[in-house]
Amino acid sequence: MNVSIIGTGYVGLVTGACLADIGNHVFCLDVDPRKIAILKDGGIPIYEPGLEGVVQSNVEAGRLDFSTDIQASVAHGDIQFIAVGTPPDEDGSADLQYVLAAARNIGRYMESFKVVVDKSTVPVGTADKVTAVIQEELDKRGRGDLGFSVVSNPEFLKEGAAVDDFMRPDRIVIGVSGDDNGRRALASMRELYAPFNRNHERTRVMDVRSAEFTKYAANAMLATRISFMNELANLADRVGADIEAVRQGIGSDPRIGYSFLYAGTGYGGSCFPKDIQALTRIARENGQTLRVLESVEAVNDEQKTVLTDKVFARFGKDLSQHCFALWGLAFKPNTDDMREAPSRVVISALLRAGARIVAHDPIAVEETRRVLALDFADAPQLLDRISYAKSPMAAVEGADALIIVTEWKAYRSPNLERLKTTMKSPVVFDGRNLYEPAIMTSAGVIYHGIGRNSLH
Ligand code: NAD
Ligand code: UGA
Q1: Ligand nearest to the backbone CA of 85
Q2: Which residues line the pocket of ligand 2, CB cutoff 6 A?
Q3: Which atom of ligand 2 lies at the shortest distance from residue 155's CA?
Q4: Same domain for 136 and 252
Q5: CA of 453 relative to ligand 1 center, distance in Å
Q6: Mean pLDDT, the chain, as a whole number?
Q7: Mean pLDDT over residues 304-317, rounded?
Q8: Is residue 264 part of a domain?
């Protein structure tokens, strides 16, 4: 099939490359000429394991093309995916300007029936807005006769595992209207996704609004589990229990399950924070307060300071005589994404308390420099006190304590003897509960996890 993807970011590039990989002819459009130039040059503008290979092989096979030419993109795809950003507005609601600009371009240039797919995460009712904008453009051109249908097909991939998630989805949610154009669109969507359903039907067909809602509900549920466990972890620290034992104890109940119950320094990333805000905003606009979700967000904001609270409790509020090693900067492993990363809150608190930091991250250092320049626009001189080490062990040299914010694989089994002799004092604040407290303690390390303060 001929497919166009509007917006060649994380979701658009993964969607485009993976749909090309199963034999479709895909045209990826972006308004950012820098991104398109990198892709045309054979590179990829984001760090995502496995993606570069899929992109390159499909470009070579002639099934994947990149361009900034809007008219050519609209002409190419019978199916037009909208995969542009939906960042939070000042009031927390999703900013739909990019989605509606993409819709307007489709209406402006289409010459035949189009299936228009909302892949971006959007509030309930957005498909109606997209429909209205396209129709308005068609009417302006006197081409109101051209048919189209807007489908909601939200994306559930995770950064760092995006290609795998796309190729092996848990479910494919398709929201369509019940009219003739909707049925025609559903037939196209079923044909497009047929290769993903070979051994097992994964498609969930529903009405458009329910599909839009499903995406927010999924992220809200996952974020709720995390904040719930973080709150319990803080209580475990007070009462002398081990949250990791508790996780295993409750996770063995299949109604609960083990995953997404890891306590830590709070969730970050480009999606949970903005989607929770957007959903609570949608509720308020509709006369309802989502009390659970508003608490999920508040708990998460506070959780990002739990590590530094522990640091202050040990070293005092004035850290000008102290140097800290920081392992992990990205909001999670296998990405260089720093959006809403808890490390930014940790760095800000430490530098503003006068500390020095030597940080390590396998790939997010460049991105960290970029975002910290913005975070410290009010006090750029403080950035002289953070430097970046080439290896985890180089970062801990002479440090008063090691703080772990992201659970990169490279941090899983440190040489504890070397750690002790390299550091000024062997204190570890583990924001991702990477280590067993008993093993650390018996090795002579002073260990602070999140909710791991059991009394045995
Ligand atoms: P992104 O910022 O990485 O990419 C968006 C791209 O769209 C940018 O390259 C931008 O230049 C381009 N763009 C903006 N307006 C355009 C226009 N009118 N025409 C063409 N291109 C345009 O964003 P993302 O992370 O890919 O997220 C896209 C959407 O998918 C969001 O709604 C997000 O919530 C959702 N989502 C993201 C993830 C994820 O892991 N990143 C997962 C699931 C869903
Ligand atoms: C998340 C969802 O997992 C995807 O299904 C969804 O498509 C995506 O948002 C989106 O809508 O964009 P992502 O943000 O890439 O994906 O990363 P996650 O693996 O979900 O992690 C999010 C944050 O939660 C990270 O900061 C991670 O450290 C934290 N987390 C995760 C925990 O603190 N504890 C856990 O048990 C799991």
Answers
A1: 1
A2: 121, 155-159, 219, 222, 226, 260-262, 264, 267-269, 271-272, 331-332
A3: 7
A4: no
A5: 41
A6: 96
A7: 96
A8: yes
Q: Are residues 173 and 302 in the same domain?
A: no
For residue 26, the surrounding DSSP H or E stretch is: strand 25-29
Whether residues 202 and 304 fall in one domain:
no
304-323 average pLDDT score: 97
* Closest Cα to atom 23 of ligand 1: 85
User: In angstroms, rounded to a whole number, what is the distance separating the alpha carbons of residues 284 and 139?
Assistant: 34
Q: In which domain, by residue range, is 443 found? A: 223-448
217 within some domain: no
| pLDDT reported for residue 453 | 83
- Establish if 194 belongs to a structural domain: yes
Instruction: Encode burial over 75-92: b for 16+ CB neighbours within 10 A, e otherwise.
Output: ebbebbbbbbbbeeeeeb
Sheet holding 114-118, edge to edge: 64-67, 25-29, 2-6, 79-82, 114-118, 148-152, 172-175, 203-206
In this prediction the pTM is 0.95
Residue with the smallest CA separation from ligand 2 atom 25 is 267
- What domain count does the chain have? 2
The answer on 98 and 202 residing in a single domain is yes
| CATH (domain of 157) | 3.40.50.720
Of the pLDDT bands very low, low, confident and very high (cuts 50, 70, 90), residue 92 is: confident
Å from CA of 14 to ligand 2 middle: 17
Q: Is residue 256 part of a domain?
A: yes
d(CA 83, ligand 1 centre) in Å: 5
The residue written with tokens 């600009």 in the block is 101
Supply the pLDDT for residue 455: 67
